[in-house]
Specification:
It comes from Levilactobacillus bambusae. This protein is α/β, with parallel strands linked by helices and about 250 residues long. The protein has helices spanning about 25-30, 75, 95-105, 125-135, 150-160, 175-180, 195-200, 215-225, 235-245, and strands at about 10, 35-45, 50, 110-115, 145-150, 165-170, 190, 205-210, 230. Bound molecules: SN-glycerol-3-phosphate and magnesium ion.
Length: about 250
């Protein structure tokens, strides 16, 4: 019934469970923990820079305030993105997409890089084009998977970079994402694990990578069914548990 692929462990916002999310220390830890993939989020600053951060506003994860779209790169770079998490990370900065990609290249990372376009609340005009342009001038040794809750962003990225992979993110509407895969508008589905479990929504022939798979119970559920991947805040623990279950 299930295919026997090894489930990829994808680090959510870097290694969100053990480091300040979406910072270079978080991505470095994910690599050191043996993650097969890295998931992160991208927004656009006022002056058109691709900024790696989860929220539309900087308030929760930095010592600043305001919308990313209303701040310049210089203003964002002046913020501390580590102290809110722990004093140990004081002075950690919000990275740009280019800095994250460079870290992965420097570490000879060859897994998957899942870039989530955060266009579901604010539609940053032209962000897809900027991301496409960036990867056209920056060849990378890893596989690119673009995802978004915003269907239009997935389709636009697909048109711009037909050789990458695409996934539709969803919390509740699994059938729309499934339709997109059937219509070759996306390669994969990135569902909320709660939806997967509640609706027993498992399509073994499709690339499903649920989020955020943090409990051992949820990890075991996905590993036993050989999901294509899981997106987790705890890549180190997930890699160890996968070893026990899948060998
Ligand atoms: O890409 C999976 C997951 O990151 C989606 O939700 O809010 O953590 O970006 P969020
Ligand atoms: Mg995300």
């Amino acid at each position: 019934m299930f295919n026997r692929q090894k489930t990829m462990v994808i680090a959510h916002r870097g290694s969100k469970g053990t480091r300040p999310e979406n910072t270079l220390p978080a991505f470095q830890t994910a690599i050191d923990d043996g993650a097969d993939g890295i998931e992160t989020d991208v927004h656009l600053s006022m002056d058109g820079h691709l900024i790696v951060i989860h929220d539309e506003k900087v308030d929760r994860t930095t010592d600043g305030s305001g919308y990313v779209k209303d701040l310049t790169l210089a203003q964002i770079k002046a913020l501390d993105a580590g102290s809110w998490y722990s004093k140990r990370y004081r002075g950690t900065r919000v990275p740009t997409l280019a800095e994250v990609v460079q870290l992965l290249i420097d570490n000879h990372f060859t897994g998957i890089f899942n870039l989530e376009l955060k266009t579901n609340k604010i539609h940053y005009d032209g962000i897809e084009q900027l991301v496409g342009d960036f990867f056209k001038r920056t060849p990378v040794p890893f596989r690119l998977v673009f995802s978004s809750f915003n269907k239009k962003s997935v389709l636009t990225m697909h048109a711009l970079m037909p050789n990458a992979q695409y996934a539709k993110l969803f919390s509740t509407n699994g059938r729309q994402a499934e339709r997109m895969v059937r219509q070759h508008e996306a390669d994969g589905l990135h569902p909320d694990i709660r939806w997967v479990r509640e609706h027993r929504f498992f399509l073994p022939h499709m690339q499903m990578r649920p989020w955020t798979v943090n409990s051992n119970r949820d990890m075991t559920y996905c590993f036993k069914r050989h999901f294509a991947g899981i997106i987790t805040d705890y890549p180190g623990r997930a890699v160890a548990l996968r070893q026990q279950i899948q060998g």
